[in-house]
Records
---
Amino acid sequence: MTVRNELRLGVNVDHVATIRNARGGVHPDPVRAAQLAAAAGADGITAHLREDRRHIIDSDIERLRAEIALPLNFEMAATREMVDIALRHKPHAACIVPERREERTTEGGLDAAGQLAHLLPMVRELGSAGIRVSLFIAADRQQIDAAVALGAPVVELHTGTYCEAIEAGPEAFERERARIEDAARYGAGLGLEIHAGHGLTFDTVKPIAAIPVIRELNIGHFLIGEAVFIGLEQSIRTMRGLMDEARATADALS
Ligand code: PXP
């Protein structure tokens, strides 16, 4: 019997908060979106508390912890303020991401290799509190080696460039996919748990979901945008279905 490789879906609810904050007030509520995501087959909820609180705010994190049974993946910059917030809420996981105020979204991976001394105490402190630390990095062996050196148990590979490459034609798209696969296999070989995310859509998710060593995909913007047209539940169910299809095909071929 073939044992199916588990592939979890983390639903990022940041952009429900983006819409809420456009008007102020409480609607639409990212915690309600998280409840719906759980019902639609999400395995976890991801939320990024940015330094400028442009979408998720502190009370959202508090409520996500109190009201949602799914594991919370808390995305955070490598700052003292964010480490303290993570230690207070004790999410299941903390994903350390690079953050620049002027960027629209998390544009690149964390330069873990270039800031070992800055990151090491934070990775240790979060890990000692029982929080599973993940580093959001480019699909780059040097960054993976840095994650190992830091003792982070998880890396999340940035799929933004891969997703954009779909516009550049099949060769470029395949080249970027292969880069993600190479990094994923390299990291898994070193004992890291491999996640991936950023920019994934119905059109780009399957080749990534088919990489057998990847254990989790974190997806937000597309799911929330598509929800405008087909509803959040359907948006998540369709994504989940595509992931499962890709993984089942990969399992059958292995
Ligand atoms: N993973 C990480 C670490 C991220 O920072 C983001 C964006 O907040 C995502 C996944 C989800 O990306 P997207 O919203 O483009 O699906």
Note: The chain has a mean pLDDT of 95.
---
Amino acid sequence: MSRVKIAVIPAAGFGTRMLPATKAIPKELLPVVDRPVIDYVASEAIEAGIEHIVFVVSRGKEPIETYFDHQPELEAQLIAAGKTAYLEQVLRPMMNQGRSSFVRQGKALGLGHAIWSARHVVGDQPFAVLLPDVICTGTPGATRRLVELHAETGGCAITVNPVPDGEVHKYGIIRPDSAGPDAHGRVGVTGLVEKPARGTQPSNLAITGRYVLTPDVFDHLETAETGAGGEIQLTDSMVKLIGHGPFHAVVTEDPVYDCGDQLGWLEANLGMARRQPAIWDGLADRGWVTR
Ligand code: G1P
């Protein structure tokens, strides 16, 4: 079975729900505790064995490229000052030496169009997709679980999380097969619907923004049909792969933080701060949280 070596991170969106903060800063670079959101996501890809990340960007997203590159003057200064801990943090996200590509999505036509924009770099191989608004917690990481599943099946795989009825309209929702999840939380997918109206959803299992897809999805994205919200949806092309090869979902119970709006971003900060005792204790000392 083929190994997944390449990932696409679509980072071209405006970040409308986080305005005005995102007027001058890409939403993907907003910090969650100490790191930009996209840093968590790229790290998850690297942990999964991904060797090359294709960032799909748009005008104004140049700072993302800068973030994943060397900053020689800063590095020299940190070395001279003996600030090795900071130096490690500056060097850690480095994606140079031919391990990243940046492609432009000329128009904001939807997630499906963004992924389609990466087709020439991805080529004819399976690939991962990680949405950079979303921090998926859990060990091993969500993408690693999908890469391992693909190694077994050779097909598509996505992670899903249960959401309440009142939130199904915000997500892609799966129809799981009648056998239900196995002991590893893996379930066959028999249908998908993007942002169903409440009451029409085939389940409460929502796509968390992590995918391993086979390259034939590009054939369907090519038709550029619009779906929910008048956008070219990735989910609509994924539906067309069902029945033509294995398609599984992994149900995860680990917290998933959608940093795309204020509440989710704040929750992500609290969720990730809880993993850093020095910060969490500091918040507790000041009465914001309990230990
Ligand atoms: C996208 C996907 C959706 C998925 C969601 C996860 O929607 O289209 O299927 O459930 O990400 O965050 P968006 O958040 O871009 O509207």
Note: Residues 6-285 form a domain with the Spore Coat Polysaccharide Biosynthesis Protein SpsA; Chain A fold (CATH 3.90.550.10).
